[in-house]
Every structure is written in structure tokens, then in C-alpha cells.
Amino acid sequence: MAIVKPFKGIRPPKELVEKVESRPYDVLDSEEARAEAGDNEKSLYHIIKPEIDFPVGTSEYDPRVYEKAAENFKKFQDNGWLVQDAREHYYIYAQTMNGKTQYGLVVCAHTDDYQKGNIKKHELTRRDKEEDRMKHVRVNNANIEPVFFAYPDNQVLDKLIMRYAATEPEYDFIAPIDGFRHQFWVIDNDEDMQTITAEFAKMPSLYIADGHHRSAAAALVGAEKQKQNPNHKGDEEYNYFMAVCFQASQLTILDYNRVVKDLNGLSSEEFLEKLRKNFEVNKQSNNQDVQQYAPKELHEFSLYLDGEWYSLKAKEGTYDNTDPIGVLDVDISSRLILDEILNIGDLRSSKRIDFVGGLRGLGELKRRVDSGEMRAALALYPVTMQQIMDIADSGKIMPPKATWFEPKLRSGLVIHKLS
């Protein structure tokens, strides 16, 4: 049973949304945020990346930076750049990328569901990143940015959403960086809100697609506030955190690829020969000028080496179809190529490997190898949402750098206050 509820969103007036909205805090660094904000004092970066209001080089973890976030959040509200809705609502947030639209319901999820495992995760979290987000939630007393959830397809909710999608949205804009369309509707019909609450209550689980650290931080802050309140009942606003929930079948997961700095002392020929133990290796540029070669199916990989593209097909017996982790291409490539051949065991800490995801594509792999920065590149077939859900249901954790969801949620369309 998934507990969700509507909330009194804090949002920009319609005419200011494009001034306020921004990319998420964790997809760009401080200097990129500084450049994107420019002289726009209404940019949400002043709240989610407030180090831009300090001299260049100021740490984003400086205590003054967190204090500045709260100061700016108050300023935005005092100036009317962010205004709280008079009553509780659910909201609909749609994103259109390359002609495909996905529709999310913006809800408040219960921290107890996260603690009990009803909100399922598929990644490990790092304590330092949790602590950073906890400080941000604490100082603002708000979830400034939403978490990204998936839920099993639901015809009742789909029908409700599409009814609103046929009406004029509250917000409708093309984001300047990603070039994707973002639309937003306010659900103000009590019967519709009751339907949403009831349909989520039928779901055994929700799945974190993106935002594991924000989810963990929200749950930890909620637990802190419970302990501080001697009259805690469980229905207080701090027990909830903001999420945008999409039907699983609508989500797009892109490939998340690898580039390596060296071949562990091997020549190119020696490396290819070692690959043949577990893979069928075929050069793809024998009879044609192949600029790029993408994997066509699960368990096929693309290798770019010495200006050539190769197809690597994992041989039977190198993976276990009954193991939700062992069947993943990220696991196969990590075990049989990165670890066994290249001696890159810890993907989280090794300086010999980097990752290229999202919309950068195979051209970025080729560029980084051709430039001499990297020795070789490995492209993977994208993980499926079903694989993620299977792993989450099994209680296991995905290997590092396995999923890249696109498009990213824009921040600043709606904010949830904890009291």
C-alpha cells in the first residue's frame, strides 16, 4: 500500500515560471549554475546552488551556503516569485522529448513507506550526499526539488491524467538547455484527488527512478522531526516528501557508457584476444565507413578502439538469466571486461574509468578516445524499467552507473513545505 496525499504547493506565478525554473542541483557544477543564472535574480539556482552568490571557489558545503539557501527561499516568497497555493492539490507534470510525452503525478509520499521498503530503491546511497541533502531540507524546511518515482501502469490514473492533458496547462515552456517541452496542470477537483489517493493505496510498491539521496534525506529529516515532536501523530506535513510519479512503461532509460584510460598494460591485439574468451568479437567497419555502432540488443556491447568499432556479444554461460543482477549488461561488462581483463574493480572510486550517459551519445565516446584522453570506449544496451523493478523487488542493488533517465525533471515548478 502506497500512501500519498495532495499538498499546498509553493509555485511561481505563471508569468515567472521560465525565470524561476532550473535544471536539478546534481546535473551541473557550481560554475555552470553561475553561468546559467547569470544576472537573473529569480533563478532557482540561488536556492539549490546558492554558492553562486559567493566568490568563485566557495565550497557548496560551506555552512554559509546553506544559510543563504534559506535566506533566498524566504526572499523568493516575500517578493512573490514563489507563492503557496491556498489549498492542497495534486499536480500533473508532462515532459516531451523527441516527440514522446510522459505524464507524471506530483504527490507527497510518506516517509514511513520509504523506511518500510514500500518505496523501493535500486542504488546505494552515500552518507556524505545524504547529509548534504538533509542540511538543505532542514534549513529550508522544505523539499525544494522532487524525487522521480515510477509506478506500475494504471488505467484509472492514465484516463484521469489524459483528461487534464486535453485542457490548457498552467505552465507550458521549452527549456533552454535540454530543448524539451515541459507542461504542468493543477488538479483541483476533490473527486479526482480522492481517486488518485485511492489508486495509489492499491499499489504494493513505488520505485525510485532517480533521487535516491533526496529520498533518504527526506526520510531522515522526517524521523528527526518525529523525535522532536512529543505530540507526533503521523499525519504531520514533515512525514511527507514530494515526488513526481510516472507510469513505468512511459519512462525512457538511455544507455550509460564507459570510457577507460588504459588497457591494463595490454596491447590492442592482446586485449581483443582476451575478450574472445567470453565474447564473440566482430569488427563493424570492415566493408563500410561505420562512424558509430550501437548495441542492437541485450548482451551485445560496442567497443571503440584504435578508430574501429567492434560488436561484442556475450557467449552463453557468461550470465545467469535467473539472477536479476547477473543478467544485467552492466554486471556482465563489469565482471568480464572491466574487472577480469582491465583490473578495474571499484567503479565508484577508480580514476581509470569515466562514464558517459544521457544524450551525449556515441559521438562523445568516439571524441574522447580519438582525442587521446581515453584509450577505449564501451557502449551498453540500455537497462529496462522492468529490470530495475525486478531488482528492487528482489531487495538487491544495481551495479554503479547503470541507469540514465531522460528527460530530467525541471526544478522550481512546485515546492513542498514541511510545515
The number of strands is 21
Helix count, DSSP H or I runs of 4 or more residues: 13
Helicity, in percent? 25-40%
User: Mind summarizing the main beta sheet?
Assistant: 9 strands, mixed
Oligomer: single chain
Mean pLDDT: 94
- Bin the strand percentage: 15-25%
Nearest-angstrom radius of gyration? Answer: 23 Å
Could you explain how this protein is built, in words?
The protein has helices spanning 17-20, 30-37, 45-48, 63-78, 111-116, 127-140, 155-165, 190-201, 212-228, 268-275, 329-339, 361-370, 385-394; strands at 4-5, 10-11, 83-84, 90-97, 100-110, 119-120, 142-143, 147-151, 171-174, 181-187, 206-210, 240-247, 253-254, 256-260, 279-283, 300-305, 308-314, 353-357, 376-380, 404-405, 416-417. The model has no long low-confidence stretch (mean pLDDT 94). Helix 4 runs parallel beside helix 6 (127-140) and helix 6 crosses helix 9. The strands form 5 sheets. Strands 1, 4, 5, 6, 8, 9, 10, 11 and 12 form a 9-stranded mixed β-sheet that branches. It is of the alpha+beta class. A hairpin with a 2-residue loop joins strand 4 and strand 5. The longest helix is centred in the middle third of the chain and has 17 residues, at 212-228. It has 13 helices and 21 strands.
Which tags fit this structure?
419 residues; alpha+beta; six-stranded antiparallel β-sheet; 13 helices; nine-stranded mixed β-sheet
Question: How are the secondary structure elements laid out?
Answer:
Blueprint: E1 4-5, E2 10-11, H1 17-20, H2 30-37, H3 45-48, H4 63-78, E3 83-84, E4 90-97, E5 100-110, H5 111-116, E6 119-120, H6 127-140, E7 142-143, E8 147-151, H7 155-165, E9 171-174, E10 181-187, H8 190-201, E11 206-210, H9 212-228, E12 240-247, E13 253-254, E14 256-260, H10 268-275, E15 279-283, E16 300-305, E17 308-314, H11 329-339, E18 353-357, H12 361-370, E19 376-380, H13 385-394, E20 404-405, E21 416-417
Parallel strand pairs: 6-11, 8-12
Antiparallel strand pairs: 1-5, 2-3, 4-5, 4-10, 5-12, 7-21, 8-11, 9-10, 13-20, 14-18, 14-19, 15-17, 16-17, 16-19
